[in-house]
Amino acid sequence: MLWTPGLSSLKMLDLVVGGGAARRSTSTTTCVFLLASLFFRMANAADIHVKVAPGQDATALEPLGTVTPLFTLPNERLKELCGVEPGLPDLTLWYRVVNKDDDAPLKESLMEQYAGVITDVVIPESAPPPDITPDFTAKQTYLLPNDATNNGIDAPYSWTFPGGDGTGVTIYDVEYTWNLQHEDLAIMHNEKELVNSTDEGANLQDSFHGTAVLGEMVGTSNVFGVTGISPGAKARVAPEETKLLGHNRANAIILAVDDGKPGDVILFEMQARACGLPNDGAQVRYGPAEEDLDVFEMTQVAVANGFVVVAAAGNGYVNLDDPACQGKYDRTKRDSGAIIVGAGGSGLFCTGGWDGSAREKLAYSTYGSRLDVQGWGECVWTTGWDIGGRGGVGYRDPNDVTDKNKWYMGAFSGTSSASPIVAAAVANIQGIAMQKFGAPLKPKDVRKLLSDTGSPQRGDTSTHIGPLVNLRGAIDKLFGETSQPTNVPTSLPTSLPTSLPTSLPTTLPTSPPTFLPTFLPTALPTSSNPSMSPTKPKPTTATPTNAPTSNPTTNTIVQGAGSKSSKQVSTKSAKNQAKSKARKI
C-alpha cells in the first residue's frame, strides 16, 4: 500500500475500506494483506531515518521533530563494529526523526530542504514478510539427498559430522513475531525476544510466519513432529518492529551482531519495495530488505564482523538487473556480502502450492545476477499454521484443535520458506568448520562455497536465482572427503615389490589444493571435543496405526489421534538416514 502524503490516517482508511467495490479484491488473502500493510504503515507514518553528512550537526533536523540516534548501542560500540576493516560505513551518522506531523514528508523534499546536511533518507514502510502460504499438506523431503527421485539438500549427510547439526552456532531470525512455546521448538521455550531492556516487540502480525521459519531450522529432534535442518543449533529472535522504536530493521540487526559471535548466522525474513517500481495491480514489487540503505550498511558491518547474513530475495518478481534498480544489485558497484536467496520449485504437488518443477524459479520470486542460491519456495513441512487463517489442512491435535503449540503446516512457501533452508545449511557448515579447524569460515567464502557446489537451477536460467544448496557437495569440496573412496582396488596384488626405493623425493608438490578455505579468528565453542558426535536425529519409532499410506511424494492431510503421534514417511526416512556415527574428520 503506497502512503499518500497529505491524507490523514482516517481518510486513508476510508479510501481502502469505504471507497467502493472498485477497490475490493476478490481474494480474501489480498484484502488481509492490504489492510495489514495499511495499519503497519499508519503505525510509523511519522518515522524517518536520516543519514547526516560527516561533520554536520543532527540538531539541524529538530524542526522536523524529535531527533535520536537510529541505533541504540553506544557510539563507542558502533565505532568498534565499524572499525574492523577499512571502508565500512559510519553508523553513528544515522538518526531517527519522529515527525511532529501525522504524515512523513517525501524523501525528495527532505533531501532538497536539507541539502548538504543529510546524505540519505529512509522512510520505513512495514512490508509483510515474504510469505505466500496457502493451505497445508506435506512431506519433509527437502531434508533428503538430491537425486533422480528427490530434490533435497542432504541434511542427514551433514549430521554425520561433528558440528554438522549446527552445534556451536546461533541463528538469529529478524522479522515480526513467533510462538516460542510450540511443542516442537523446545530450544526456544526459555528464549526471549532480542530487544532493549525497556522495549518489547510490537506484535503487529500473528506468530505463524516466524514459527514456521524456526521449525525449518531448529525443529526439535525427537519422536514426533518435524526435525529442523540444524537441530543442534541455538536460535534467537529479533523483532524488526518494537513498541518504543517503531519499525527499525537496522537496529534489530545490530542487536543480533552485538549479541552473537563470528560464525553465527543472521536471517532476514523481510522484504522491501524494490527499485522504485510501481505496483502490478495489488502486487507490490518486493525485493531484498537491503534495498534500504540503513539495512544495506548494517549488513556490511555484520558481514565484516564475521556473521553470515542470509536474506530473502522477496516475492515481487523483480528483475534486480533492471535499469530501474540503478546498479544497486551490481556486485561490481556495491556488495553487502549477504547471501540472497530466491524461491525454486520443490518438484512436488501440494494443495495450495505452485506446482513448481524442481529447481525452476517460481513465478513470484525476485531474481537477477545478485542472487546466490535458492531454496524450496513451496510445499515445505514445518511448525505453525496458515497465516491466511484458512485452516483445515495440515495437522492439529484432534483432542484440542485450538492448541497452537501443536499446529503444523505442510505448504509454507515464498522466499520466506526458501531462505531458512539456506540459513540452516550455513549453520551446519560453520558448525563443522569450528569442530574441524577451531574457527568458522569467512562469510563470503561460505557464500561462494554454496554457490559453487549447489544443484544447478533448471528451466529458464536467464531469470537467475542460483542453485539449490547441496550440503554433501559443499562438505566434500571443503574437506576433500567423499562418502565412498573412488579408488578402491578390485583385487589384492599378486606379488610384493622386489626392492625398496633408494631415495626420498627431492621436491615438494608445486600446485596448491584446489580450494583453500579461510577462517575467522575465534575461540573454540565450549564443547569442542573433535570426536564428539552431533545431537542424534529423531529415533525411529513404530509406524502409528493412523500413519498416512500414500506415496511419499504425494501430499496428504495428516491427522493423528491424541498428542500428534502421526509421522510423515519421508521425514522418518530422513531421520533413519542420519543415525550413523559421527564421521571423524
Automatic annotation (TrEMBL):
<keyword id="KW-0645">Protease</keyword>
<dbReference type="InterPro" id="IPR000209">
    <property type="entry name" value="Peptidase_S8/S53_dom"/>
</dbReference>
<feature type="compositionally biased region" description="Low complexity">
    <location>
        <begin position="516"/>
        <end position="556"/>
    </location>
</feature>
<dbReference type="Pfam" id="PF00082">
    <property type="entry name" value="Peptidase_S8"/>
</dbReference>
<dbReference type="InterPro" id="IPR023828">
    <property type="entry name" value="Peptidase_S8_Ser-AS"/>
</dbReference>
<dbReference type="InterPro" id="IPR015500">
    <property type="entry name" value="Peptidase_S8_subtilisin-rel"/>
</dbReference>
<feature type="region of interest" description="Disordered">
    <location>
        <begin position="448"/>
        <end position="467"/>
    </location>
</feature>
<keyword id="KW-0720">Serine protease</keyword>
<feature type="compositionally biased region" description="Polar residues">
    <location>
        <begin position="562"/>
        <end position="577"/>
    </location>
</feature>
<feature type="compositionally biased region" description="Low complexity">
    <location>
        <begin position="489"/>
        <end position="509"/>
    </location>
</feature>
<dbReference type="GO" id="GO:0006508">
    <property type="term" value="P:proteolysis"/>
</dbReference>
<feature type="region of interest" description="Disordered">
    <location>
        <begin position="481"/>
        <end position="585"/>
    </location>
</feature>
<dbReference type="InterPro" id="IPR036852">
    <property type="entry name" value="Peptidase_S8/S53_dom_sf"/>
</dbReference>
<feature type="compositionally biased region" description="Polar residues">
    <location>
        <begin position="452"/>
        <end position="464"/>
    </location>
</feature>
<dbReference type="InterPro" id="IPR050131">
    <property type="entry name" value="Peptidase_S8_subtilisin-like"/>
</dbReference>
<protein>
    <recommendedName>
        <fullName>subtilisin</fullName>
        <ecNumber>3.4.21.62</ecNumber>
    </recommendedName>
</protein>
<feature type="domain" description="Peptidase S8/S53">
    <location>
        <begin position="189"/>
        <end position="454"/>
    </location>
</feature>
<comment type="similarity">
    <text>Belongs to the peptidase S8 family.</text>
</comment>
<dbReference type="GO" id="GO:0004252">
    <property type="term" value="F:serine-type endopeptidase activity"/>
</dbReference>
<keyword id="KW-0378">Hydrolase</keyword>
